[in-house]
Amino acid sequence: MKLTRLEFFLYTSVVALFFCVPAFYNGFPILFPDSSGYISAGFVNKVQGSRPWLYSGFIRHVSLWETLWLVLFVQGFLTAGVIYLMFKEFYKGQHNSKLFILYSLIIGTTTAVSFHVSRLMPDAFTPLVLLIFILLLLEKNLSRKEKIVATLLFIVASGMHNAHLVMNIGMILALVFGALFKTLRATYAAVGITRKKVGWLTLCIVCTHLFTCTIHYSKEGGFAATKGGSIFLFARLCDFGIAQAYLKEHCKEDMHGGICDHPKKLFYAGNFLWYKDSYLNKNGGWTEENEAYFGTLTKNILTTPKYLKSYIIRSIEATFIQFSIFGYSPVEPDIKWVTGAVKEYYPMYTLAADGSRQVQNNYNQNYVDAKNVIHEIVLFIAFLLIILLLWSTKIPKEQKAFTLLIILGLFINAFIAAATSGVYDRYQSRLIWLITLPAFWFVSTYLSENKLFNKNN
After folding, report:
1. Which of 15, 190, 217, 385 could form a disulfide with 80 if both were Cys (CB 3.0 to 4.6 A apart)?
2. Across 42-46, 92-96, 179-183, 285-289, which has the greatest mean pLDDT?
3. How many other β-carbons are positioned within 10 Å of the β-carbon of residue 366?
4. Residues 410, 428: contact at Cβ < 8 Å?
């Protein structure tokens, strides 16, 4: 059943509001330490730190400089709209519009999707990037208008966070690598993956990069998609203990001055990046000079074979750890300072922000733990169902391809986080709920075949 425009708008709006329930319960949009920088950058009209400006502009303009609740609603609306397109394109059974509503209600109450929609962070766009990538790769029935909307949303959503561009490139490289094998080339042809589609997605990724660079150039940030990448990578080398080992070996031998003269030891990334007395922050912070300095230092470390080997091993280990960590919680220690940006740019919401459960630390830990247990049980069941889906001979090959691409995307996302930033639950929880989509289709197909959805049964 195809929805009319009015029905689509109404159903998607209802789902969007449902996805905002965690924020309603909190009493205010859920905040994260980075939320402050994202909010303020949209108003000072400059690129700040290493964060892309696009999400800041999204907050500034979607909120109409009136209310941050509009930002959450649009995040929920876009999420719901993309999920509906997945049902429309890939689910071949009956009642897909009703099942779209049912599925949205289930994941909204049992997974992290509603939590990320309810938080002022670009993490809400990460699953949209992966879903639309797969949609444009496998689609056979989208209308011209739907393709245009999906493509534009893909380009914009991909520019919301630095990791999105890398994830897209990783997906393209994986597809190209798969095409080297004759068996996989035949599978590509069977599910509709063509050179034209891969080329189109590659062009969209290039357009995203140029679009982001152009925006940053207009905001006095230089013609670059991001800055500070070398600093983040050096911080990750600190986490692995590789940077410390290299400096211990080379300082006072072929390296003099700079970080070798820093009296304090390097510990983990958070200490290096954010501690006020770290070498980075005592020497200007995120400057071009520091980026160049740590870029050279990182290059020297990773072109040393024994340290490169250690980096690869540690990154692979951390990837599997990251893949398995996907809890979520609104509890953030010392989050009250983040409300400073709210007070400055949305002063009428000062009391609401200060009085939220999150800021007042009024979340019951048992409640948070129970939500995570439910989340883990649902994902465990979904993984079991996915195994059955891949074994089944009755499931359309497009759904199997969709499922495998989701799993590939999850591993690429985990690797990017593990190798360049760190192992944090939010990196995987923002995406892991996607495995419930093919699992739900599998159950729906099974029940449909057994006439459970037949009114005459």
Report:
1. 15
2. 179-183
3. 8
4. yes
Place of tokens 């340290």: 307
Q: One-letter amino acid identity for 399?
A: Q
SS3 sequence of the chain = CCCCHHHHHHHHHHHHHHHCHHHHHHCCCECCHHHHHHHHHHHHCCCCCCCCCHHHHHHHHHCCCCCCHHHHHHHHHHHHHHHHHHHHHHCCCCCHHHHHHHHHHHHHHHCCHHHHHCECCHHHHHHHHHHHHHHHHHCCCCCHHHHHHHHHHHHHHHCCCHHHHHHHHHHHHHHHHHCCCHHHHHHHHHHCCCHHHHHHHHHHHHHHHHHHHHHHHHCCCCCCCCCCHHHHHHHHHHHHCHHHHHHHHHECCCECCHHHHCCCCCCCHHHHHHCCCCHHHHCCCCCHHHHHHHHHHHHHHHCCHHHHHHHHHHHHHHHHHHHCCCCCCCCCCCCHHHHHHHHHHCHHHHHHHHCCHHHHCCCCHHHHHHHHHHHHHHHHHHHHHHHHHHHCCCCCHHHHHHHHHHHHHHHHHHHHHHHHCCCCHHHHHHHHHHHHHHHHHHHHHHHHHCCCCCCCC
pLDDT of residue 457: 43
Burial string for 265-280 (b: 16+ CB within 10 Å, else e) reads ebeebebbbeeeebbb
Are the beta carbons of 151 and 204 closer than 8 angstroms?
A: yes
For the record, the structure tokens of 246 come out as 């290299």
Domain boundaries, the chain: 5-227+324-449
**pLDDT given at position 267:** 66
What is the C-alpha separation between 108 and 83, in angstroms, rounded? 12
| pTM: predicted TM-score of the whole model, two decimal places | 0.93
| Band of residue 291 on the pLDDT scale cut at 50, 70, 90 | confident
d(CA 136, CA 131): 9
Say what the pLDDT of residue 284 is. Answer: 81
CA-CA distance, 60 to 84, in Å (whole number)? Answer: 27
